[in-house]
Amino acid sequence: MQYIQPVNELTNAESVIVGVDVGGTKIAAGIVDAHGQVIGQVMTATDTQDPERTLHSIASAVRECIETAGIAPARVRAVGLGIPGMVDPERGVCLLSVNLNWQNVAVRSWLEQELNLPCVIDNDVCAATLGESIYGAGRGARNMVYLSLGTGIAARAIMNGQLYRGAHGMAGEVGHLVVMPDGPLCRCGACGCLEALAAGPALALSAQTAIAAGQETQLKSYLQRQGTLRSEDVFAAAADNDGLALRILRQAGKHIAYGIYLLAMTFDPQIIVIGGGLTMVPSPLLIEMRARAEYLLAQSSTSRTMFSAETLCISSMGRDCAIIGAAALVARSNGQHTREKQ
Amino acid sequence: MQYIQPVNELTNAESVIVGVDVGGTKIAAGIVDAHGQVIGQVMTATDTQDPERTLHSIASAVRECIETAGIAPARVRAVGLGIPGMVDPERGVCLLSVNLNWQNVAVRSWLEQELNLPCVIDNDVCAATLGESIYGAGRGARNMVYLSLGTGIAARAIMNGQLYRGAHGMAGEVGHLVVMPDGPLCRCGACGCLEALAAGPALALSAQTAIAAGQETQLKSYLQRQGTLRSEDVFAAAADNDGLALRILRQAGKHIAYGIYLLAMTFDPQIIVIGGGLTMVPSPLLIEMRARAEYLLAQSSTSRTMFSAETLCISSMGRDCAIIGAAALVARSNGQHTREKQ
After folding, report:
1. pLDDT per residue as tens digits for the range A152-173
2. B-chain residues within 8 Å CB-CB of A296?
């Protein structure tokens, strides 16, 4: 990318990257060092009233994060941004983001002018995939898949050492794979998509539906108190051994396992890294997901060749994953990670 | 590959490649010109008694094909071989081929010594995928998937302009994806694999099972006459409007469509080319396959972005597909097709 200058050995050793996780409700900006460690971060609410206000809140978060960390602006090599939506990374334009209410927003040029720093943007799952590939569990793997489980479900793959986008930038969109044809309606228009069955909002909705149908659960009191349920509530209730919450998480884990099975059989990766909001705590979802994926992949001699218990791993980056991924966009584009040079 | 010498402009214009389809029952060797046209071929039975006899029958086929075509041996640039099984193309070794009864056979070195010609070997589906990518329907597509429907079912993908093999050389092995958990036993040990439901032998077996259960069909007379059924019989009976044969082919088409759906959703290819023995004639299998794949991919706004009627096409190479694919291994390894340079 043209704005990023080659950095000499000395400067490089001292330089940092600002990684920005641009979410629909909050923006997290962090200082990331050469080892992929977040050495300081700030968080702010996302102003989605209009695109320019959103861009202003991003710029403020970046500035604040640099100031708070006490880093001299000259030490910041570049800013990487992971955006939830369709992104044209070459042109630096966000084509569409439902969460941010963006359509054809020239993010890179606006921010570069405002911040006077080179910027790199990409889709957030692409960014997280690169983050795991450069700094995380996928380090050293020429072929890996990253599966993000959160408000949405999506995967991306590193193939022959390169991020693979597909013909329409949609490769790995297993969240919208129909796995239960008579399942619940998904926001994409299909019924029974993996996302409509197992993403964060689906877990909360399942609980609300069960409560409405008269099922006994401690989630009822959460609902009465809050007026609505979040996936976090389901995880909390499951940790407290609530029967409904346990059933919901196990069922979701089973559906996700099928997605993992398909990703393994098509991409044949060395490693599948699972990350995102639903993986932050050990839970029956992750236990069931692993057990079921191992069962599915043990069925055939073909898949047994491709898969062992070590193939599947949970990201160890936790909540920093999105910031580190955004920083990885810069590391990659600068050729720091030679496997990713394109 | 080290044995292949660079060819100068003049020689290149006149040189040909010998492409060899090494099957479990027959070996077909053909002369392929620079445009991927088969300009002459010979066919011989495969002697699978021991690996050396098989190699001798391959060498004989190559020699005979060159002689029959009246080509001066100096004009033959190299020999490409597509082998049904696990192949290490770098070392030129076939690791395992159940059909050929081969295990760790150093195919390339043996043939190069015997024929005094450079040889390139690879898995037959990899070869066919390259063939479609270089000379066929996938020409010009940076991302394509080739799905082979025959005695087995398998797919391979071209991604970012390169053949993608995966971590264990198994990427695209959708033939052993379980699509009906209570389905028939597959040779891989699983039940209800796509291959056990829709590959050639499965079609013949379905018909035999139905006849044993007392179903009326003209295939009964085929069975009485031949003692067994082949998939070709099912296609012939369907062409004659036999009810059972039509049902079997439609059902197979429906199962294959699910495989196409998964390949589209994971790889997001520009084009999906379908080839192999089951695609040689227009049939209810292909009609149902297309209709069902289009239905599945029309369900979600996400998949609609990725798929149009033009995405799916049937190979136009017919029975020459395997020979042309084998020749493509040479064309690719020699950098003739720059997109494929690795």
Report:
1. 999 999 998 999 999 998 999 9
2. 178
